[in-house]
Write a structure and sequence with these properties.
Elements (H helix, E strand, L loop, with lengths): L3 H21 L2 H15 L8 H40 L3 H14 L1
Helix pairs in contact: 1-3, 1-4, 2-3, 3-4
Length: about 110
């Protein structure tokens, strides 16, 4: 079993790796593009050109398939880091074991 400090180090490393992956996928640009496309959907004339609207909807779907899993993983990692920091102050063995199990699944 890992102790809290070791888990914190591992989760922080995982967070850093995820940030690097986000950079490789140019995640910020993808989020910007997704926002632009979502604005286009709100245009009253969006559906006038079915081919173009379908193309935009496909692109939105593809972007979400990249962005959402990375954001969910980032949230999970950050939540576990925060919980581990709290566990340093007030230790809870069961919670610590759950976070370690999470780490084993995520790595």
């Amino acid at each position: 079993r890992m102790d809290i400090k070791e888990l914190l180090i591992n989760y922080n490393n995982m967070s850093e790796d995820l940030n690097n992956i986000g950079g490789l996928f140019d995640l910020n640009s993808k989020k910007d593009k997704l926002n632009e496309l979502n604005k286009e959907i709100n245009n009253p004339n969006f559906w006038n050109d079915k081919d173009k609207s379908n193309s935009i909807l496909n692109e939105i779907s593809n972007l979400k398939n990249i962005i959402v899993p990375i954001e969910q993983l980032e949230t999970k990692i950050n939540n576990n880091i925060e919980t581990l920091q709290l566990l340093e102050v007030e230790y809870d063995k069961d919670l610590c074991l759950l976070i370690e199990e999470d780490y084993q699944k995520l790595k």
